[in-house]
Design a protein that fits this description.
It is a single chain. The chain is an alpha/beta fold. The protein has one domain: 3-Layer(aba) Sandwich (Rossmann fold), CATH 3.40.50. The chain is about 35% helix and about 15% strand. It has twelve helices and ten strands.
Length: about 350
């Protein structure tokens, strides 16, 4: 966001250093901690929103929608902003980490919109296709739909889009998607007023190599199982013997992207997909296209290497558009401390500093 004189404002956050809490010591335990948490009780005031989107590489199947959930603060106060939340690879709006940060922001006075990416979670039946790291048009379409067709008709508030800032918060690959959407957005104004990304892969090549390490065998097996399930739950018109042979043969995320993601989104190969969907170089050469951006990453993240984020930090030097926090500990989307999730708190404080 910019001040009245249209000049960039400098963001200075006084944040305590992240410290792990027993027994969640080390990157792996920090990473899997949310797996042992019960889901938060759903809010009865949540509203389901169906957003029409274009089909991908098909003209025979017309039923293509995204499904998202809008929640507004319980108190009768006008929301201080809308936060657009995106999940990571193999996830959905049901994931505990996404729901937790949504509740944190709701309690702080924000309206939140949790989006199931194309084909994910409870939105699986609404499309035959799946999301990618660069499904920019889906994000742009969703934002425009909320602005033009829905938010002003909210039952609780007459939301004035000229006064309500819109922020994006992405976890893991969800952050990659938000960054790409902002960079691909062809408008004089920014798509978001600010973006916060936690444990986000900026270079898909290095992330692919990292998850294929032998020490990550169980992680990759778990992710592949979720991706295959997501694919098999679709109403694919080509569910023939060849299709099942293909999906059975896939053992790694790279193979999944090579067999399904890259061709369905029009890329020539998996290397072509990873190169064009990695925002690292685009940010280096055109960071001015982004709104104010916060990147949080841990050095002991077992899934996504921190080096590309550090590389970006060193490359950008002294500028105030992108804030980068790299911690020694925290795992992947972990950051569990004695006072709750440290990264949730940092994101909330950073968003408040933009208002």
């Amino acid at each position: 966001m910019r001040n009245k004189n249209n000049k960039d404002i400098n963001i200075n956050l006084k944040i305590l250093e992240f410290k792990e809490i027993f027994p969640w010591i080390g990157g792996d335990l920090q990473t899997i901690r949310d797996t042992f948490c019960f889901d938060l009780k759903p809010d009865k005031s949540v509203e389901r929103i169906y957003i029409p989107i274009d089909g991908i590489n098909t003209v025979s199947f017309k039923k293509n929608y995204l499904l998202g959930y809008l929640e507004v603060p319980k108190k009768d106060i006008y929301p201080k902003g809308l936060v657009f939340l995106t999940h990571g690879l193999g996830g959905s709006t049901k994931r505990f980490g996404l729901r937790r940060i949504a509740k944190e922001l709701l309690h702080d006075g924000y309206a939140v919109f949790k989006l199931n990416l194309r084909g994910a979670g409870s939105g699986r039946y609404l499309t035959n296709s799946n999301y990618s790291a660069r499904c920019s048009e889906d994000i742009i379409t969703a934002i425009n739909f909320l602005k033009n067709n829905y938010l002003h008709r909210n039952k609780r508030f007459n939301l004035d889009m000229n006064k309500l800032p819109i922020f994006g918060v992405g976890l893991s690959l969800g952050g990659t998607i938000l960054l790409n959407a902002s960079l691909d957005y062809k408008n004089v104004n920014s798509l978001f007023d600010g973006i916060a990304c936690v444990s986000t892969p900026l270079d898909l090549h290095s992330s692919s190599q990292c998850i294929e390490k032998s020490r990550n065998y169980l992680y990759q097996k778990w992710l592949i199982k979720r991706l295959k399930k997501q694919l098999l739950m679709s109403e694919f018109l080509n569910k023939k013997e060849l299709f099942f042979k293909k999906i059975k043969s896939v053992k790694t995320i790279r193979e999944f992207d090579e067999t399904f993601t890259a061709p369905s989104w029009g890329y020539q190969s998996v290397n072509d997909y990873y190169s064009k969907a990695s925002p690292l170089n685009k940010i280096k050469n055109g960071f001015y296209k982004l709104p104010f951006t916060l990147l949080i990453h841990s050095k002991d993240d077992p899934w996504v290497p921190f080096q590309p984020t550090m590389n970006l930090k060193n490359n950008l030097g002294n500028q105030n558009k992108i804030s980068i926090l790299i911690t020694e500990k925290g795992g992947h989307n972990g950051f569990h401390s004695a006072k709750g999730c440290w990264s949730d708190y940092v994101v909330k404080k950073w968003l408040n500093s933009l208002l």
